[in-house]
């Protein structure tokens, strides 16, 4: 599968909306108590709403007619008290529900984050980080209103409609039927709109994702953008994506705008019918003016929840696409996962075997083909070869970041597929060219190698790789704050910190992928001593283009044409006068 860039919309699977919504609402199960409390409060609010028109009818028919001022005061006082209670409940309800829905969003976001962390490189290779960010942040946020209103609107409004309907039918059947005459038409209209609106909101979320991906990409690479003065180009691309985003929004919102008029028209016609019939009935049948006044209040109480429900339905349609995108990720199984009954990898000694290994990132392109080698415990192996030959791939396979297509990889005679990924990777130390530092202090960054390391252990590790000296020269020493990716430090300094981090993790197998490429010759000499200490007593793979750095390796593998074409010590390979010899001579000549 090709990489899904900011230019392409993501593919989405068709899932039944009902299934998505049930799955979303299932998150409420953990908050049953709070939801019952909210529903209880809602019950009080509904009760007060229903009692209000009845009090009004009593006031009109019994007290105003009879000129009973005392009675009027009592009923007025009662109305004030219950309405104050209702107001208080409304406030409480909003706070309680916001708390619940925020907690649910946190649960979903946490689950999504943890799941994403388990997904394999393969998943991330095919998606820009910005699109993942869009799901974890934007799509989860889009569920806030749906969750909030599900409890506040869905159940209470349904209850209100039923209670009001019963009261209306008890009061007068004909008036009740008149009030709801247009309801079936409204339901049909909404169903028609939602089928179209859902598609459009799906497109909107994808466009939103593209915009996120591009923003993230260009700001991650802002140095490149500015050094090539490509700001105009990126702004134009951004504008293009923004236009698509906006158009998709307008196209979707247009349909939403049909909802309100439809409800309002039905409400209006329903009320007109009630007044039309009601006024006639006052003359011919025994309908009191109090009943008609109460009825007109009940019409409002009948249509308001319908309005709320339509609004909620509208929100569902608008945001269900967000939920679909979240569940799609949660349903993505990691390509690389533990087999059933995977064992814990015993403490690694360091013997590594590649036995007829074949692998390709894409099915049709083999990056390694039938590769076999055996490495003894404690050996240092250097991998050299042209760019794109497959050196990094070999070490990626050893850490099981990808699964091989054919063959078997063993460590100490154990097939790495048979052991848990955690127990395997926790014993490997991987240092790449792209040293990633996190926002925080230098100390925090080194501690990443061993989360419970003491300050002394951190300093010791830094000293071993000769990072201590430069760290102490910084204003705050080990507490110096580095920003994202460590941009406040030089590339070489970042690498020294990463060395300390790796050393602290005491890996059983060490992988240095072009790790010394950015260190100047002076620092390299210092680091070389640190590395030698690091390499001692552990099997190590060193990938380096600078051949001067790997001459001391126990064996050098020359990787090219999907296989290992030469292997031996530096001296052996020079004597053989093959590929390595040519590579070495070319570099040697270039230097001299
Ligand atoms: N994630 C990936 N998805 C698809 N193809 C990939 C991926 N990573 C690497 N490749 C391809 O696999 C081949 C081997 O890549 P690899 O990174 O192992 O080479 P390398 O020898 O380490 O190169 P370099 O010296 O430039 O780091 C290359 O052709 C590369 O384009």
TrEMBL record:
InterPro entries: AAA+_ATPase, ABC1_TM_dom, ABC1_TM_sf, ABC_transporter-like_ATP-bd, ABC_transporter-like_CS, P-loop_NTPase, Type_1_exporter. PROSITE patterns: ABC_TM1F, ABC_TRANSPORTER_1, ABC_TRANSPORTER_2. It is found in: Cell membrane. Residues 36-318 form the ABC transmembrane type-1 domain. Keywords: ATP-binding, Membrane, Nucleotide-binding, Transmembrane, Transmembrane helix, Transport. It is a multi-pass membrane protein. Residues 352-586 form the ABC transporter domain. This is ABC transporter ATP-binding protein. The lineage of its organism: Bacteria, Bacillati, Bacillota, Clostridia, Lachnospirales.
């Amino acid at each position: 599968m090709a990489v899904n860039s900011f230019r392409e919309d993501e593919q989405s699977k068709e899932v039944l909306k009902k299934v998505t919504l049930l799955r979303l609402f299932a998150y409420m199960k953990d908050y049953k108590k709070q939801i019952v409390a909210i529903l209880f409060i809602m019950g009080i609010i509904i009760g007060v709403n229903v009692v209000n028109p009845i009090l009004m009818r009593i006031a009109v028919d019994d007290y105003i007619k009879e000129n009973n001022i005392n009675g009027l005061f009592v009923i007025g006082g009662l109305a004030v008290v219950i309405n104050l209670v209702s107001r208080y409940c409304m406030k409480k309800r909003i706070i309680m529900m916001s708390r619940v829905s925020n907690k649910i969003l946190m649960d979903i976001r946490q689950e999504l984050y943890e799941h994403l962390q388990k997904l394999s490189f393969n998943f991330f290779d095919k998606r820009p980080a910005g699109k993942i960010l869009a799901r974890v942040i934007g799509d989860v946020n889009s569920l806030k209103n749906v969750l909030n209103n599900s409890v506040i609107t869905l159940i209470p409004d349904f209850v209100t409609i039923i209670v009001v309907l019963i009261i209306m039918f008890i009061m007068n059947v004909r008036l009740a039927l008149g009030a709801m005459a247009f309801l079936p038409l409204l339901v049909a209209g909404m169903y028609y709109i939602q089928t179209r609106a859902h598609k459009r909101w799906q497109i909107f979320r994808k466009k939103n994702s593209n915009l996120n991906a591009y923003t993230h990409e260009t700001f991650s690479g802002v140095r490149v953008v500015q050094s090539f003065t490509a700001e105009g180009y990126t702004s134009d691309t951004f504008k293009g994506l923004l236009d698509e985003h906006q158009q998709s929004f307008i196209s979707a919102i247009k349909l939403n705008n049909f909802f309100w008029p439809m409800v309002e028209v039905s409400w209006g016609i329903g009320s007109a019918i009630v007044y039309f019939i009601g006024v006639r009935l006052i003359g011919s049948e025994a309908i009191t003016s109090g009943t008609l006044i109460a009825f007109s209040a009940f019409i409002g109480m009948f249509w308001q929840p319908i309005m709320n429900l339509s609004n909620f339905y509208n929100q569902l349609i608008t945001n269900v696409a967000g939920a679909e995108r979240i569940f799609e990720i949660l349903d993505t199984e990691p390509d690389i996962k533990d087999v059933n009954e995977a064992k814990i990898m015993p403490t690694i000694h360091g013997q590594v075997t590649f036995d007829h290994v074949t692998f390709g990132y894409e099915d049709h392109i083999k990056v390694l083909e039938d590769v076999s080698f055996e490495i003894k415990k404690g050996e240092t192996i250097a991998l050299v070869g042209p760019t794109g030959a497959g050196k990094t791939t070999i070490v990626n396979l050893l850490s099981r970041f990808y699964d091989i297509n054919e063959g078997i990889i063993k460590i100490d005679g154990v097939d790495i597929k048979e052991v848990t990924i955690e127990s395997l990777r926790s014993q490997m130390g991987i240092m790449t060219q792209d040293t990633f530092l996190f926002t925080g202090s230098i100390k925090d960054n080194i501690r990443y190698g061993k989360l419970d390391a003491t300050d002394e252990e951190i300093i010791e590790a830094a000293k071993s790789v000769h990072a201590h000296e430069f760290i102490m020269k910084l204003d705050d020493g080990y507490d110096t704050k580095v920003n994202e990716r460590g941009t406040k430090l030089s590339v070489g300094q970042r690498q020294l910190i990463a060395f300390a981090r790796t050393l602290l993790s005491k890996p059983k197998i060490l992988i240095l992928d072009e790790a010394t490429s950015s260190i100047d010759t002076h620092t390299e000499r210092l680091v070389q001593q640190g590395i030698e200490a690091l390499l001692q007593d552990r099997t190590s793979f060193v990938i380096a283009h600078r051949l001067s750095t790997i001459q001391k390796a126990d064996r050098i593998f020359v990787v090219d044409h999907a296989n290992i074409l030469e292997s031996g010590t530096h001296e052996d390979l020079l004597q053989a006068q093959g590929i390595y010899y040519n590579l070495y001579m070319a570099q040697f000549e270039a230097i001299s």
